[in-house]
Predict the 3D structure of the following.
Amino acid sequence: MEWVLAEALLKQTQDPRVLLGTLCRGEASAERVETLHFLLQRLENETARGGVDALPEAAREVAAGYLVPLLRGPRARPAGAPDSDPPARPRRRVLRAAGAALRSCARLAGGSSLAATLAEEVLRDLLAVEPAPGVEVGAEAAVEVLTAVGPCLRPREDGPLLERVAQAALSLALAGDGEAAALAAGQLLPELGRSGGAALRAVWGGLLAPGGPGRVGPQLLVLSALAERLLPAPGEREAGPDARRSVRFWAVVQAGLARAGDALTRKRARYLLQRAVEVSAEQGADCTCGSREGNGPSLFWWSENKKDELLKFWENYILILETLEGNQMHVIKPVLPKLNNLFEYAVSEENGSFLFKFIQKMTSRHWCAVPILFLSKALASVPRCKALGPDGLLALRDVLQCTMITHQILLRGAAQCYLLQTAMNLVDVEKVSVSDISAFLMSLRQEESLGRGTSLWTELCDWLHANESCFGRSSGCSPVGLQEKCSLNAYVKNLVQEYIKSPAWETGESYWMPDWFEAKLVALMTLLAVDVDGMRNQDSEKQRTQSILRTFLDPLLDVLAKLGTNAYMPLPKTDRCLQLLVKLLHTCPVKGSSTEADEVFTLLQDLVVSTTESISKFLLRRLTMNELSSVSDLDCCHLYLQVLTELTDLHLKVGWKRGNPLWRVVSALENASVQYLQDTDRAQELTQGRQIQRVVSMAALAMVCGATDQELELELDPLDAGPTERFLASLPLNQMLQKPHPEDQSSCFEESSSRGWGKIAAQYIHDQWVCLSFLLKKYHSLIPASDGDLLEPTLPAVQRPARTLRSALSALTVLPAEHVLPVFHCMKLLVPKLLASSESVCIEAFDMAWRIISSLSNTQLIFWPNLKAFVRFVFDTEVLAVAAEIKGQAYFKIKEIVYKMIEMSAIKTGVFNTLITYCCQSWVATASDESRGSLSNAGNYSELVFEACVFGTVFRRDQRLIQDVQTFIENFGHNCAANVVTENTQREDHYVRICAVKFLCLLDGTNMSHKLFMEDLAIKLLHKDELVSTSTTRYYVNSQQHRVKNRIWQILLLLSPRFDQNFLNRIIDKIFQAGFINNQASIKYYIEWIIILILHKFPQFLPKFWSYFSYGEENLKTSICTFLSVLPHLDIIIQNVPEKKHILKQALVTVLQWGFSHNFSVRLYALVALKKIWGMCKTLQVEELDALTSVIEFSLNQVENVHGAGNAKKNWQRIQDHFFFASFHPLKDYCLETIFYILPRLSGLVEDEWISTDKFARFTDIPSHTGCLCSSSPTRLHQLKPGDWAQQDAGSNLGETANQSEWADVQKKIIPWKNNVPDLDLELEFQDRAAKLGKSINRLIVVASLIDKPTNLGGLCRTCEVFGASVLVVGNLQCVHNKQFQHLSVSAEQWLPLVEVKPPELMDYLQQKKVEGYTVIGVEQTARSAALTQYCFPEKSLLLLGNEREGIPANLIQQLDICVEIPQQGIIRSLNVHVSGALLIWEYTRQQLHG
């Protein structure tokens, strides 16, 4: 329009100067300035042809008098302009037009003097630090001026000026975040770059300057804008510097790819890489750019000899980076196989340095459990190569430390296993020593990964054996002093000798416990060497193993044998030997199998037993002779008691005898400890040394009690209470240690102690309760129901239980969480006795214990043992029985705790597992066991079993991911050592239901208590089903409601064969009525199956079944299909009925009635039933039905031989092939596998709901049922794949992509960058933002104010953004927050201008747009509408879309310039409004693209 106006003005005016003067007066509107620009362009063209003279002076006047003041802002406005300033958006349009006009003025003025003058003036203002008020030039306007005049400057004459402009523009682009910075990078710098010379050198030098701006985003913005000059194609004139050979350039690109936080910056980095690859391929010259350090892998390389391979490598790399920008798995998955080629080529080119750098990079960030696991697994799969030396092993050790921060023990252990396999595959054994390997192995946790006897241990032994002669020398001073090559045996032998040597230590020095690290190292390497030697001499006899073990351990055994007699042996030496002994005994047992068959462990036991007497005498002396008197000595006490416990356990395994010297030591230790505690009780004040010895004595008594509890033969006097028992029973509970006085403390007490006095006091109280727990357990029968009237009880703590329980509550208030376990054990013994008489105290115990449990974090070593102890005392069989009998507050408190634990399970997976497992274990009883507290407890607390039956929370995606990965690791079985050495906690949600199912399978329907319990549970389940069904009118597949209902009917199906007729009379109507509810497919199958089983066992319910077919078609609708699905199994139902003909006749009449239904699905189900029933009639030769033969045969033949390939024929075949009618047998398939695995899988339930029979087998806490319910299906049902006839295409091709090694073509989501240059900031608004994004700009406005549905609006928003519409008008901007809108728009609203125009305001809006020159086009079928295929869209078009139901109102149709309709070939009269709009938007775009 402005161009036409300029042409018209020129034709009417003889002197262009007058016209220019006229346009420079009046309001500086965007239209006026754009017209001026087009006029100057027209004059410029005329001047080039010699048609206009005397314009240079006029151009200077326009530039200096109008355009420059206009660009400078309101305080420097041109003469005659009104005192008003346009808003921000129109002002940017004015600035662009003024800048373009200024460039034409500079050209018309001739020469570069005007351009240089303007550039100097604007540059001076731009560089001014503190511009004076009123005369400042906005940075944005300054950039517009410099962009306009820059191309007119001469590279040679104006070189210094160009250089200064380039430096200022670069500084602005790199430092700023606003519009000016974006314009400087996107417009000014590319213009200056095209001039080459000094300007380009200044920009390049500023970008590469060391210590320059470190912001990667702005740097990449500038580099991508100058890409054509810095990465020039062959043959381009005045090419600039070659950025491909600059380390700084590639460092910026690498930072953009790896560390940039926004997608646009990463896009620019990929663009520069792609440009470099294309230029390298075209130039055909080699190019390599190494790292800044000079010794790392190349950042970029190109070789003409490997052009094809490198082209494919870089293309794959860029494609993978682009694909990973999205979150759509179907797009990412086909690209992942390309990673293999990428990785293999990188490794082959870099000779292992790539792997080393990759492993180093892994340590530079914090990893979650799942990524570090799969990265480790991927590294373990790399083919064997010599890629890592000592530094590589150190890097792997750092990665191992990354795995230690994860809380999931199994995943942590599995990652360690894979990293050890990585080391064995990638280490160059000639560059590392055995010492390096041993140091790496110490980074592993043996209790999580490297357990002896596992497949990983065997693999490690094989690797050591194969490379034993290849290991290099130690890189430094090794722990054992060996720096020459040596065999593994020599290394271990020297390692043990160096370890046994007494370290430097003098009498009088402060003694600290030796670190356990060296003991762990020596034990591990010793056992590895023994097993490697066993591989080397597989055919040798037992004497060889004994000989090599003695060779290694002789120095240790020699010291241990002298402990009891050599009183002057240095303590560091003795303690280090005892540490090594403990570590050998902990490491040696074979994981996952019996240790009796392990020759090495048997020999080690024999060697240790031979030194028992000497060791025990030394321990007795150290523990009883007041030698432990400092805080640091408590660590030694812990070591000695640990050794004594190990020796006790060892002698219990080999056979205990009363004359054993260890028994005498234990007895003496017990007596001495009791004597010392009695003596110090009478003392007024105790020094620190005497208090420490008191702590040691109490710890020793706790150890003796623990050992006595394991083996009754250790009891000194098992029948009567001896002095030790009487002392322990009379001991003041929760007796605190007095804190030592300052004069008693050593100078290093406060600073050097590794344990505060509070922890010492807590341990002392903990040991008291350990002893009391032993005492209560031993004399459990003496605990009375109340404190009673005993004046002088022999065992006060036992015979006054109420006082003891109150003391336990006091202990819980002072003890830290890691020390409350023995208190819980005591409460388990006390609460059952006191619940009836002291209910309030017991409830207080419940509350306090629960507060402790609920406050604990989810840690393996504290939370779970405490939770188990809590469950054992609150849900003790006798506690539950007494609480149910008295029906007091305790009964309701226990139920309250049940629901609190279920609620906690949603946060801490496995809490409910612990509860239900313990309860079911205690409730399992045979039919003859009617003792108090057996199944009666299950009846009183049936809510617990009920909640277990329907339990299963929908976890967050991250929680579900952890569980899925744990299952993935568990499925490796013994092939992953972590599965062997870590305990299978069975905390998965499935195990709650598995426990309940196995418990229910053990119940006997003939036992009255069992029968009542099952009936009560069934009623609760049916009531729950009604509540779920009425809570929402419609629920979706795999929703929480669907899952709960599915679990309900699974349990009802499990119980139904054990229901008798009387109970079924009560619930049969509820079962039938459940069939009329709008259920998901899986639930329909369970209901139909239950009905079949009931009718099979009790045919007398058939009349009631037939009655449900007579509710009326309108009421039944498609729910009648549930009852029709039962009839194909009529042969099973009437299997035991003598008179079958009457039933068959009734079935035929019913089926024929529904065969004429208006609903297609109902007719299909009726025909399937008809075919099966008619086959039975013919087999039984029912003559009474001969009259129906012709009708039935005709109907069946017609449906079988229907012509054509339409849906009717396909659906008939599909429903016949459906598993429920073709393969399923209601009796033979009645098993756990079908109920809990096959049926959920075939009915489309999510995998979370599939419970395999393996999980039932792995759960051994409840014994398996040996009755009629088998585990696996005997039919071919388990071989079928999901294929419901109504949705049979779902997942039909899922297996194809998994076997695809690499796809030839893949999806690639793109952004249509203009000229492929991602140039500017995404935060710019509306048209300016779209223009500076490089997106094509059109003048199409789409008005959707009449549209109501968020889905249509979201889809239109996405379509408008993709095709570059200038704006989308909606009735309410709040629609963008609607989830359905966002689901369809996929963030398009962030990149598309949106304007709110409410429907009542549309009339004014359309009229306004008409004034602005827009053609208003209605998308509507009218009497005068034009066909879309014949209509030519004007550039400035406005599309008005109608309402979904009513279209465009009549009053608005009168405002339209034209209506356009879409030609149709079908019968339906209209398209969806979003589809209609999309078709017109595309046609507009197509016409604009083709001119």
Q: What stands out?
A: Strands lie at 287-289, 300-302, 1339-1343, 1367-1370, 1394-1396, 1415-1419, 1426-1427, 1436-1441, 1458-1461. Residues 1008-1031 form the longest helix (24 residues). The chain has a mean pLDDT of 79.
